[in-house]
Amino acid sequence: MLAAMKVLQDAKCDFYIHTGDVGSELILDQLTGLPCAFVFGNNDFDRMEMGRYAEKLGINCYGNFGDLALDGKRIAVMHGDDIRLKQRVIAEQRFDYLFLGHSHVRLDERAGKTRIINPGALHRAAAKTVVTLDTATDQLSFLLIDESR
To answer: How many domains does the chain have?
Structure first.
């Protein structure tokens, strides 16, 4: 996570989104003081404690689903393991972007007006990646994480 945060900070990100499977308070510590939000994943087991810790740090925890507005864009954030919720979000076409994780496979596709983005993963993935999105230009970039940095 440290290498990923360095890459994202070097890219001068304005807002950080974690799509779940946070796993531990150590990950939340990396987000402290940054404009950010996260949702829970299927491997986040002690959600009550993690939610309390996030609140103490001033980090936005959206539970299973986040509905954000950034730069005039509507952004849905979910882990991706709830297939019905994912299908409903896509079918409703209320969001400009849907960020999700779960599969550990990077994804950039459109379904109507909604751009569906999975940044990939930092664990259990052949290539460890994060993603940046410029909401003003709709420019998306997958960034490879070199953990030896």
So the answer is: 1
